[in-house]
């Protein structure tokens, strides 16, 4: 394949509505695969980025989308991992330095080399060009940065696993969620609903901490053992010192001190959501019970494949609402209003 143009949806400027454009895709290299994108999930990170809420300006026009599921359409001359027709996914990055200690260990998301982790969109690739994401019809990627999607997972419901799924699987696996461990998931949204499913499948005792009880029936259906409203002060008294692990999926300004108080001795609160402002924590929320606050960001290629295989084995996928591309701007507003159960997925055939 020679260098080509494909249809996509992009934000032309910060806070501007997304619109249909054409973008270039690089010629197929020896180790590249051409993916015909079938579905792309809408992640809150997409909204933060196109609205310039993380303060980095951005390389506009931005084509978002890092929850990508599709089918291999063509392979480069030296590709060995995939063939045309294979079901594949692409997550939050499309390249890394490949040489640093973290890359060699399969932790490409924490690449410390000069190139760094190359984001699927709004980043600069090794060719010096801006990367464009999954709100498009096709993508070219090195075979080593694509993932195999198990046959047991529908492609539309698999797309959100490439960000939401791995964002929760990685900390749950790292902090050893499993039998005998009490895990709390803060927020039952696109991230949180996958956290409940995965933690339950790992064998942990799972509690949802949500602002209200509005989604309680959903939470219990998804695998939660308990569900509490954080708007009720009694929740923090009742659950004090309870959890081994809390994963905070929300991007709102929370009183982390209150949540840290829910940890047992040696418990950890893992911050996954990225609010605009710093979240202050009092030292004596941590010191007396040797509690920790940590962060976690997606997973590397090996762990992401492990997550997909785990979901395939346990029958897990995202709860989705499939939309046509002309409804992306409406979907953004609904995400901000928490009006989705639980992930919008764009049908790429409508782009």
From TrEMBL:
Keyword line: Metal-binding, Oxidoreductase, Zinc
UniProt EC number: 1.1.1.2
Cofactor(s) of this protein: Zn(2+)
A family per Pfam: ADH_zinc_N
SMART domains cross-referenced by the UniProt entry: PKS_ER
Source organism, top-level taxon: Bacteria
Reaction equations catalysed: a primary alcohol + NADP(+) = an aldehyde + NADPH + H(+)
InterPro entries, alphabetized: ADH-like_C, ADH-like_N, ADH_Zn_CS, CAD-like, ER, GroES-like_sf, NAD(P)-bd_dom_sf
CDD domains, sorted: CAD1
Domain Enoyl reductase (ER): start-end pairs: 16-346
Similarity field: Belongs to the zinc-containing alcohol dehydrogenase family.
Protein's UniProt name: alcohol dehydrogenase (NADP(+))
Taxonomic lineage from the root: Bacteria, Bacillati, Actinomycetota, Actinomycetes, Kitasatosporales
